[in-house]
Sequence to fold (93 residues):
Amino acid sequence: MDLATVEKIAKLARIRFKDDEKQSLVKELGGIMQWIEQLSQVNTDGVEPLASVVDTSLPLRKDVVNDGENPEPVLANAPAKEHNCFAVPKVIE
Fold:
């Protein structure tokens, strides 16, 4: 991990760091990358993929149409709306 990579990541994430923070991140992210490389050397043949260490299922709601047919009350307090939908500012250029 080098300073240029940290600056590129910060730019893509739109995060500003002070110069001393960038140097700290170079060390920290470098350590994380070494740890990932170390993990990639672990033999995981025969090990089933795991999404959670807790054996639970996610609660699912029924797929039922609701206030979508009456958008006026739903959109009454929306900061911006367009075509009976919430208008969201563009975040990706």
In short: The mean pLDDT is 89. The longest strand covers residues 81-82. The chain has three helices and two strands.
